[in-house]
Amino acid sequence: MRALRVWLRRVCGLFGKERRHRELAEEIQSHLQMHIEDNVRAGMTPEEARRRALIKFGSIDATQESYGDRAGVPWLETLLQDMHYGVHILRRNPGITVVAVLTLALGVAANIAMFSVADAVALRPLGVDDPDRIVRISNVKISGGYDSDSSSSWPEYEAFRSANRSLSGIAASDRRAVLLRHGDTARLLLANVVSPNYFDVLRVRPILGRVFGEGEFEVPDAPHVIMFSYDAWQREFNGDSRIVGRTVIANGLECMVIGILPRSYRGTEPILNPDVYVPLSTWYAMSSGDQKLYESRDYREFELFGRLRPGATPVQAQAQLAMTQNQMSEQFPKTDLDRLITVKLDKEQRGEQTKRSVALLFCITGLVLLIACANVTNLLLARAEARRKEMATRLAVGASRLRLVRQLLTETLLLATGATVAAYLLAGWVIRLLPSLMPPVGFPIGFDFRLDARTAEFAVVVAIVTVFIAGLVPAFSSVRTPIIAALREQAAASGGRPGRLKNVLVIAEVATSAMLLIAAGLLMRTLIAVRSQDLGFDQARKMLIVTFDATGDTLTQHNALLHRMLQQLPAIPSVESVALAGRIPMWGSGGGANKVVWIPGLQVRPGDDGVNVGYTVVSPGYFTTIGTRIVRGRGIEDGDNQNSVPVAVLNESAARFLWPQQNPLGKHFRIGGPQGKEVEVIGIAQDGHYNNVVEDQRMYMFLPMFQESYGDAVLMISTRADPRNIVRSVRDRLRSIDNNALVLTTITMDEHMRYALYENRFLVQLVSAVGLLGFVLATVGLYGVISYSVSRKTHEIGVRIALGAQPAAVFRLVVSRGLLLARIGVGIGVAGALASMRALSSLLFHVRPTDPITFAVVSVLLLGVATAACMIPARYASKVDPTTALRYE
Amino acid sequence: MTAKAEIWQGTLGLMVLQTLQTMGPLHGYGIARRIEQISGDMLSLNYGTLYPALLKLEQEGFVSSKWGTSENNRRAKYYTLTRAGRKELEAKTREWNQASGILARFLSPDTESL
């Protein structure tokens, strides 16, 4: 306590120093006077009395100094003094200060924004209590194949729950869609169907109402309840708190809204923020068909979470669950054989999935920060040159080198602080732009980008790192000055080392930005290649893609409904053709469905029943509507229905694989294995891309929609004019076909392709933005170094001109010196890119990682701008007036 | 043995407190003279070193200071012992007596152990 009080007094002592100093002087004065008087009284002469008193007192200076140290906090005072002086120095060179702050601000802002992105995508913990104890339970088939999903079935979940000892609870959740009626309209919402204990395990507190819990659904006729996410509550109900306790109609069922979740809880996947949470029993009431589905052992759609008991480890939990799995695989070999259970901490698992892309992004922005630091280092080095005399003087009068380094680092700290504040504002602006880059799909997809305490912490760390990277070298190099030489102003001739260092830094900047721009160029060429590529369908077609809600009670009624759509929609003016498909190419990010295809004599891996072939169901008219060429045979036609032989259209890759060098038309294969349904091949469609634009050729087939049991269908309508014009007519026509039919979403093919290429485009934009930033910074750096060297060589240039050098020659000399640096930089950058761009090849399409055009364009661009940057100081140099320049001496 | 011993910081503070205890409020010069007198000139201190020590005591709250007038009508800063200072003095004196008691017994020639 007492120590604290002393410190408080000392910190207060930092103020009112003047007054205290005066007071002490007065006190010493009165002390001496009293002593002198006493001495005189003792019989000394006044001179002797005074002399004795002074001797007895000791050094007045020393007393004042140690009194002053004791009164305040010396190091804090030094820091304040350094800052005061630093501000003074920075204000004396406003140009350098502004450039340095802006440069650093750009570099730091890029890193803050990137951290905010990485935090939203991967790093931020779940919005639950004690998120560090949450584990994810994954359940994967060991023999792989396409079925590499990690979800579990409901029976497995129940077995795990009763066997588990290490977890205080296990929760399950499945993503589904819920149609929420609002009077005449309806909205499709993303739903999490969850086990009743979901919120007990995760521990989320609602902001309104309550959460549902374990016990409440065990009674018969338990009420049907639903909870909304914060965002959905705002969007659907304008944040009206009276909604809690009311009923809403979801999937045709009346449910009571019991609570609203907090804004910080966004489900368990960073990109998806579910709108509603539905307990399992309510879901069964909404869609009765699902109970049977959920109870089957091989419908594995539930993601499982657990919460570790205190002291328990994921390894223990995993051992227990694996044992349970073993028992199940003996009991149910048909469905449960060869599965691997792993239990991992949630934070570790998410870190693993995104480790590489996060590392890549941070490498890129880290490079930009390094470029920015290099620029500031150069500026500070240049200024250090100008201050050599000052430093030498201070050293000569006895300042310690460490003290001067501290002073210089304090100045850099001021710069970095200003830059970080500016960067924070800039990053906030960038982050507000980010959501607009996200695809505006019907579901609440998108990350929660924000600036919060975590980003602030990160910014402070970046600022400190910046101070040391940018400030240490200039600080040490400026105090290493030989004092005498600097004082004699011979410094100009001897400053070899910092000059070389500046050149190296500029070369590094140019090289780095060359690499970034080459990466951006390659990604951009990929995007262009994709847009002009034949993807196996006509991506330029004028087409409206419609998702809808219309279901017949029986399969026959449902099919009749779909048939009516195919017959009546072409009557809308400007419609060319109409078709239905289970999914269209590039639909969503998922892999699409597969079926196992078997033919006699097919060589397959032991344990497999055939090969996996991707598929979709399509209606007649699909191929003409979407523009996929049938290379042999015919497409799916009206006659291919439940009464006719099962048929299929294969793509070229599948046909080639199954019947190499044979005519596949009229051949038969079986679906699901040797005992499966027999299907006849009636046509071959051109190969295409089905899931994403950079995927390899894969086997695919098209099955007649009306030969399969019903599932989801998407409506495709190709038009002669702008497809947006027919949205109203489609909506009305669908209503007239079926009273309950609703249009859910409509997008054009063009929009669809933009969303499908979203990831690629995002990457291009990101890398180009960062590359351009680096490029601008490197240009500024080059300009700075060249103009600084011109200003230092004004004298030399003056001599040359006085001796008869032509201004044009001087101009060329300066430009060529700058270009030499730029050329070396571009050379190193190109070499680095040649060596490293292979890492990008999985993101490239029809562009080689060594694409000569990209390399050439980037090199020419960089050298061109470098020349321009050097021309300004070169012009200045060529106009040097010899008489003025020589007068400097 | 050297007649004039060096004195160290901690004891100087204690001596100041003791001086103020016996003499009442006193200025810096008076305190210095008093300490020198009591120690019988065995102790020589630069009077200047007294002032940082007084500041420390004041920061710790053991003394308080106020400007006043001396017997010779001279302006001087007077230091007064506070309540906390009195307690501190008692505690320190007790400690000191114990320590010196132990040392005295240890060093005296007529101890049994010798």
Explain how this protein is built.
The complex is a heterodimer of chains A (889) and B (114). Chain A has 889 residues and is an alpha+beta fold. Helices cover 53% and strands 15% of the residues of chain A. A 6-stranded mixed β-barrel of chain A has the order 2-3-8-5-7-6. In chain A, a hairpin with a 2-residue loop joins strand 2 (167-182) and strand 3 (185-194). Chain A has 5 domains: 2-72, no CATH class; 75-124 and 355-493, no CATH class; 144-337, no CATH class; 495-531 and 751-889, no CATH class; 551-740, no CATH class. Chain B is α+β, with helices and mostly antiparallel strands and 114 residues long. Chain B has a single domain, classed as Arc Repressor Mutant, subunit A, CATH 1.10.10.10. Helices cover 54% and strands 14% of the residues of chain B. Chain B has helices at residues 9-23, 28-38, 50-60, 83-107, and strands at residues 26-27, 63-69, 75-81. In chain B, helix 1 (9-23) packs across helix 2 (28-38), helix 1 crosses helix 3 (50-60) and helix 1 (9-23) packs across helix 4. Chain B is globular. The interface between A and B is medium-sized, with 28 and 22 residues.
Summarize it.
By secondary structure, chain A is an alpha+beta fold. Chain A contains 30 helices and 21 strands. Chain A starts with a helix and ends with a helix.
